Amino acid sequence: MITVYIRYILDPTKLPEFEQYGRQWLPLVAKYGGQHHGYFLPGEGANNVALALFTFESLAAYEDYRLRSQQDPACQAAFRYADDTRCILSYERSFFRPVFPAAVPASWGEQ
């Protein structure tokens, strides 16, 4: 399993446009086998940083999604929307593998 982390630097005057961009991608990631965990818009603190997290079963599955999304008209429209609105100034992408808890001993639940 691989989780993709994207950190966006945004034009802070175009947060509504970025939110619309994110809403376009939520179903598109699922269309190609990923699980989107959402976009996270600025709240407190920096007003120009947003995050996205989504998971694929493997790096190979993610790479397949990347190739197929380049040919998908809805994905192309989402890319164009970001370009046209200039809501994204830059972004960086990182890949993580999750660590899940081991089975918790029954005695840990006792108080």
TrEMBL record:
InterPro entries from the UniProt entry: Dimeric_a/b-barrel, NIPSNAP
Domain NIPSNAP: 6-99
Official protein name in the record: NIPSNAP family protein
Organism: Hymenobacter lapidiphilus
Taxonomic placement: Bacteria, Pseudomonadati, Bacteroidota, Cytophagia, Cytophagales
